[in-house]
Amino acid sequence: GLINIVDLIIILALLAVIGAVGVKLLAKPVGETISPKSEMIVTMRVRGAMLYFTDEIMKIEPGEKLVSGNSYVEGEVVSIERVPYEVLTTTDDGRIVKAVDPEREDIIITVKAKENKNSPTLKIGNQDVRIGRSFIFKTQTFEISATIETVTFNG
């Protein structure tokens, strides 16, 4: 006939390989299919920011979208607050005490995003979200490096 048995086996094997690769590339990860995304709340802190940064970041409104690269990501600002920047200093008699630096402030930023809470790697855009990790807080008009302090889920 037109196709012998060896050719048929080779064609079927090629189709099986192409199908397996296609499923692997196009299918959603199992975790996303089984477990829907929940609201993730992330709090981060910028330590010792100069006052002109804190003045500028306070102009950002709740609800402003986060940016990664040249795209908006599924995350938005919940709140931003400024708090005194405390440093440890040594007094003349050798004691170590906390002092407030009048030229700097800490910035506490709270953002929310949708994420699968069962995922082994939590992300906002392409950035990993873990307590203690640096996070580039970026909006359309502002960018600064912060340290993640809390990660919680609603729902």
Q: Pairing-aware structural class of the strands and helices? A: alpha+beta
User: What's the alpha carbon Rg, rounded to whole Å?
Assistant: 25 Å
Shape: elongated
Number of helices: 3
**How much strand?**
over 45%
- Tally of DSSP β-strands: 8
End-to-end separation: 63 Å
Q: How are helices and strands ordered from N to C?
A: HHEHEEEEEEE
Mean pLDDT: 91
- Give, in spatial order, the strands making up the sheet with the most strands: 2-3-4-1-8-7
Return residue spans where pLDDT drops below 50 for at least 5 consecutive residues.
none
The main pleated sheet reads as: 6 strands, antiparallel
Give the proportion of residues in helices: 10-25%
Commentary on this structure:
The chain has a six-stranded antiparallel beta sheet. It has a two-stranded antiparallel sheet with strand order 5-6. It contains three helices and eight strands. It has 155 residues and is α+β, with helices and mostly antiparallel strands. A hairpin with a 4-residue loop joins strand 7 (134-138) and strand 8.
